[in-house]
Each structure stands twice: as C-alpha cells, then as structure tokens.
TrEMBL record:
It is an enzyme of class 4 (lyase). It holds the Pfam family F_bP_aldolase. The gene is fba_1. GO terms for molecular function: fructose-bisphosphate aldolase activity; zinc ion binding. It comes from Klebsiella pneumoniae. Its EC number is 4.1.2.13. This is Fructose-1,6-bisphosphate aldolase. It comes from the Bacteria.
C-alpha cells in the first residue's frame, strides 16, 4: 500500500536527544507509510505511541469499495452491514501493527 510519494525520513538522532532530555515517552504522529524497520528504530529511540490511522481508514474504504463492486454489493441497503464488513481488514492491519510495535497482549 503506497499512500505517499517518496520515503519518509525520520530524525533518529533528534529522537534520541529529545528522549534523553525529557522523561516522557515520545509520540510519532503520522506513522502511515513509514517502513517497518524505521518504526522499530523509532521505538528503540524512545517512541511509545505511533499514530497510523490513515492506513486503517484506507483498508476500510478499499473493503467497502470491493463490497459495492461485487455483484452482491448492490443489495446492501443497511449501512451497518457495510460498516461491519469493512472492519475485518482494519482488524488485520491493527494486529500486524501491534506485532510490529511489540504491543501484543499489552492492552
């Protein structure tokens, strides 16, 4: 999934310096599109929260589009049915991210 042009560049040196100066966990806003290895490195530099909702919304939208594109998609007249069906790829995306971030079973 490519949502952005170019490669995200994170300031790992700056992250480490900030983490050493402040005694609170760092937050990475706009984590969608950042390579897995860079995510791991950011976590090692003190990042404790990573926002990645754009990829979740994208996964949901792609699933809902597929439902409507399918032959049976035109029979849907209850938005709750479509909303629920769109959540499966979001759950899968969240599970993958939790594994990557090392936050499985920590809720």
């Amino acid at each position: 999934m490519v949502l952005y042009k170019g490669k995200a560049r994170l300031g790992f040196t700056e992250m480490k310096a900030i983490a050493e100066q402040v005694k609170v966990p760092l937050v990475l806003h706009g984590g969608t599109g950042i390579a897995d290895e860079d995510m791991r490195r950011a976590i090692a530099c003190g990042t404790a929260k990573i926002n990645v909702n754009t990829e979740n919304m994208y996964a949901w939208c792609q699933q809902v589009k597929a439902i409507f594109a399918a032959d049976t998609g035109h029979d849907v007249n209850d938005p709750r049915k479509v909303i629920a069906q769109g959540l499966q790829p979001v759950r899968e995306m969240i599970a993958r991210r939790m594994a990557l971030f090392g936050s499985e079973q920590r809720y």
